[in-house]
Amino acid sequence: SEHPAPLEAALSYAQRAVAAEPSSHLAHHALATVQFFRRETVAFHTAAERALALNPMDGYTLASIGMRTAFLGDWDRGCDMVRRSMGLNPRHPGWYWFPLSTNAYRKRDFAGALGMAQQINMPGVWSAAA
Asked: Distance (Å, rounded) from C-alpha 53 to C-alpha 117?
């Protein structure tokens, strides 16, 4: 970003979105995402839970928050959230497999991790490149 303090700007924008529309799960999701990248885990969980409470049927929000929950170390809960989001949308994007394959790898299930990674199917994405 060319902004001198992109996370601070993003936090300000997300907070404005929540203030403007407190019933928007997407505003709370945006706030949770910014707080994740700011490493504010308590604030992340608060905003994430609010986003999910406002719209538990949004598979994208569920998968995104699940992925971040897993990457914060709560692997079982985060991966369960991602699996539930896959059930909401069987034709989900390939990135939904990222936390599941990473979790399999960290558990030393290398064959499972490889099988899941092959499902990502996102050519050209730096984190999916082999």
From this structure: 30
CA-CA distance, 44 to 30, in Å (whole number)?
10
Residue whose token pair is 């407190």: 22
Question: Could you write out the three-class secondary structure of the chain?
Answer: CCCCCHHHHHHHHHHHHHHHCCCCHHHHHHHHHHHHHCCCHHHHHHHHHHHHHHCCCCHHHHHHHHHHHHHCCCHHHHHHHHHHHHHHCCCCCHHHHHHHHHHHHHCCCHHHHHHHHCCCCCCCCHHHCC
- Report the first-to-last Cα separation within the chain, whole angstroms: 27
φ, ψ at 36 (rounded to 5°) = -60, -50
pTM confidence score = 0.90
CA distance 64 to 93: 11
pLDDT in tens, 19-59: 999 999 999 999 999 999 999 999 999 999 999 999 999 99
* Distances from the Cα of 80 to the Cα of 14, 60, 61, 97, angstroms: 26, 14, 14, 12
